[in-house]
Amino acid sequence: MLVLHIGVDLDNTVLDATSSYLQYYNKASGLSLAPADVNDYYFYRLYGWDNEQRKTVYHKYGYDIHWNSKPFPMAVEILQQLFEKHKISIITARPLLFHEVTVKWLKHHNIPYHNITLTENKLQECISSKVDVLIDDAPHYAEEFALQNKPIILFEQPYNSSVSNDIVYRASNWVQVIKHVDYLDSLS
Ligand SMILES: [Mg+2]
């Protein structure tokens, strides 16, 4: 029997989305931002774009952005290890338009999972599918989960450093992620 139900975000949690986005956003804008410039979760704002402009660029380059993203060190190995013992649900806020490239990318990188859901309402999804812990980088999900007393493992990024709460477990790499999972497992 699988022990914990773990929700796993993709962008900037399993894979380096920042580098891939910047490559194509720089191309679209003519600017040359570097990962060190990114201090905003909504980093399209660093290009001076509004949400409509972001959508146009994202719809044009999104396939390439997602296909060319690289997994973070040890993410694949540790997800393979977690999959042996736990239920893994990929929960990403990517739009349905990019469902196919997402599934193809996961297969290409040998990342195992039981379910995949594309939704922006991660809290609702985690409640209805009884997820025990979410691994994510987004500051707004960390705040939402903490308010509901639901544990979250926050994958450290420059834009989430101000989030702090007893129920938020911070991890700066995947070895730290699995240590938090083992700890939560020991409580269950
Ligand atoms: Mg993310």
Automatic annotation (TrEMBL):
Record-annotated active site: D9, D11
Gene Ontology BP, a term: deoxyribonucleotide catabolic process
Pfam family, one: NT5C
Transmembrane segments: none
EC number: 3.1.3.-
Keyword presence, Hydrolase: yes
Keyword field: Hydrolase
GO molecular function, one term: 5'-nucleotidase activity
InterPro entries, alphabetized: 5'(3')-deoxyribonucleotidase (IPR010708), 5_3-deoxyribonucleotidase-like (IPR052419), HAD-like_sf (IPR036412), HAD_sf (IPR023214), Nucleotidase_putative (IPR009206)
Family designation: Belongs to the 5'(3')-deoxyribonucleotidase family.
Protein's UniProt name: Nucleotidase
Organism: Paenibacillus roseopurpureus
